[in-house]
Amino acid sequence: MLFTSFSNASASTAATRLSSTTSTITTTTVTTTSTSTSTTSSFALDLKPLTSTGMNNSRPFTSTINEIITPVMTYGQLDGLINKWSLELEDQEKCFLHQASQLNAWDYTCIENGEKIIALHGEVQKVKLYQKRLEQELDFILSQQKELEDLLTLSEESVKDQSGSVYLQHTDEEREKTSSRSAKF
């Protein structure tokens, strides 16, 4: 079978008066491995010369490509390439699925750890409230102990004024009991 395509293109630009004519003839034979392509380009610039020296710039540029040989692929080669690409695609798919499953596992771990952090934060807030309450109770107990010490000091002074040795012993015993009670709190 012989396929022949012929295209003829012509372009013209008014500003620079550029004219171009391109002709391409491509001949392809299915039973052989060669393709012939001929390209002829012609450009003519009609520009006014800068000086009157009589220079003529109307020479056309011509380029010809004689023959381009394109390899023809057999069905076996095409089938081999498709199989190779299919195997590579399967390998890439396995790699992608493995990475996606790892990412899902990491995401699950991050979500679990986030929930644990939220729970710990709640527990820390409860402990802070409990600590604040204990500090207030401790301040209250310390203020009561200070008041008791002040009262005890006043009562000791009054007993000294009475100069009774029996009273001093009794006061010392009371002081020790009060001190031991306050130390327990």
Characterization of the model:
The protein is α+β, with helices and mostly antiparallel strands and 185 residues long. 58% of the residues lie in helices and 19% in strands. The protein has helices at residues 75-162, 165-184; strands at 2-13, 18-29, 35-45. A three-stranded antiparallel β-sheet has the order 1-2-3, with no helix packed on it. Strand 1 (2-13) and strand 2 form a beta hairpin. Helix 1 (75-162) packs antiparallel against helix 2. The longest helix is centred in the middle third of the chain and has 88 residues, at 75-162. Residues 1-44 have low confidence and may be disordered.
On the 0 to 100 scale, the average pLDDT is: 74
- Classify the oligomer: single chain
Number of distinct helices: 2
**Which percent range fits the helix content?**
55-70%
Largest β-sheet summary = 3 strands, antiparallel
Supply database-style keywords.
185 residues; disordered N terminus; phospholipid binding; structural constituent of nuclear pore; alpha+beta; rod-shaped; 3-stranded antiparallel sheet; 19% strand; single chain; Nucleoporin_NSP1_C; NSP1/NUP62; 58% helix
List the helices and strands and how they pair.
Elements (H helix, E strand, L loop, with lengths): L1 E12 L4 E12 L5 E11 L29 H88 L2 H20 L1
Antiparallel strand pairs: 1-2, 2-3
Helix pairs in contact: 1-2
What is this entry, summarized?
This is Nucleoporin NSP1-like C-terminal domain-containing protein. This protein has 185 residues and is an alpha+beta fold.
